[in-house]
Amino acid sequence: MFTDEYYMKMALQQAQIAFEKEEVPIGCVIVSNDRILAKTHNLTETLNDVTAHAEMQAITSAANYLGGKYLQNCTMYVTLEPCVMCSGALIWSQISKVVIGARDEQRGFINKHLNLHPKTEIVVGVMEHECSVIVKEFFKNKR
Amino acid sequence: MFTDEYYMKMALQQAQIAFEKEEVPIGCVIVSNDRILAKTHNLTETLNDVTAHAEMQAITSAANYLGGKYLQNCTMYVTLEPCVMCSGALIWSQISKVVIGARDEQRGFINKHLNLHPKTEIVVGVMEHECSVIVKEFFKNKR
């Protein structure tokens, strides 16, 4: 039951909440041993803060929940490939696994030849279509 | 009077406050038209949060002060070269100028072949010696 798709669907629900707030629709969930530590969505417009990406909030929130800054035994589900900033935060967090929905060829960390922490497993393409469509839909409406 | 050295000294005072809290001693100041918008220091240990670098707090704080997320006409003074995470945040902020004290060859963004925003001017090496010594002193005490 608690598959990667299960948690990515939850991250997508967060992206949908962002969409309704006119935020770029990206959602994120952090899970440890099937316990949900954080559910977040992008809030850069609402908070007037470029650092308020879903992933940044999730890292802070999960660390707060755990009472420690390292996210060992944690998995992040994120609907869009993290940017340079968020990949840097993920490196510092030493998170165990990152599951990515859709690629972001232009802004994502992969094409910048950045790596996450050596301990971090990366999975790409879980519910890729749905994760990609919501972002495309958002920018289509903006034009 | 309001030279780069003047503001870097202020950033160094912030690094000193971090040192006294047993935080990696890095300090940061953001200035716009000789108005100080933010003075921050690294708080990753105190807040149990890998994202609580001096630069991240300063970007959030300055944007809050300005009531907008872009840091146009702003200069950041930071005692140590920003990491991947902080350089990513600086890109999003479109800040006008970043003045760096000492290089961080291992963790800094420059050796990762990352660029800041095309609009951002970068100055490296203001009070380099003092900015470097405080970090070395900190890690010497830790061993």
Automatic annotation (TrEMBL), chains A, B:
EC number(s) stated in the UniProt entry for this protein: 3.5.4.33
**Location of the CMP/dCMP-type deaminase domain:** 2-112
Q: Fetch the Pfam families from UniProt.
A: dCMP_cyt_deam_1
What's noted on cofactor binding? Binds 1 zinc ion per subunit.
Cofactor(s) listed in the protein's UniProt record: Zn(2+)
Q: Which residues form the active site?
A: E55
State the superkingdom: Bacteria
Locate the residues binding Zn(2+).
H53, C83, C86
Q: Which reaction does it catalyse?
A: adenosine(34) in tRNA + H2O + H(+) = inosine(34) in tRNA + NH4(+)
Q: Which PROSITE patterns match?
A: CYT_DCMP_DEAMINASES_1, CYT_DCMP_DEAMINASES_2
- Keywords in UniProt for this one? Hydrolase, Metal-binding, tRNA processing, Zinc
Q: Which Gene Ontology molecular function entries are recorded, alphabetically? A: tRNA-specific adenosine-34 deaminase activity
What general EC class does the enzyme of this chain belong to?
hydrolase
Q: Which InterPro entries match?
A: APOBEC/CMP_deaminase_Zn-bd, CMP_dCMP_dom, Cytidine_deaminase-like, tRNA_aden_deaminase
Supply the HAMAP family for this chain. tRNA_aden_deaminase
Q: What does this protein do?
A: Catalyzes the deamination of adenosine to inosine at the wobble position 34 of tRNA(Arg2).
Q: Describe the family membership recorded for this protein in Swiss-Prot or TrEMBL.
A: Belongs to the cytidine and deoxycytidylate deaminase family. ADAT2 subfamily.
- Quote the subunit structure annotation: Homodimer.
Name by which UniProt lists this protein: tRNA-specific adenosine deaminase
